[in-house]
Amino acid sequence: MDIETAEHGASRVLNTREGAMREPDEVVAMLRLHRLGWGSRRIAGELG
Length: 48
What we know:
With 48 residues, this protein is of the alpha+beta class. It has helices spanning 24-35, 40-47; strands at residues 4-8, 11-15.
């Protein structure tokens, strides 16, 4: 999964290939799981 993060004001948003925007708390959860060694497919399955 291609993930591109961008700064918008004080909040971070996540854009996926489909252009879906994620809430800041979802982005934090994704980044935390990634730091724990989870792969993108596993994170996607967990968070939807």
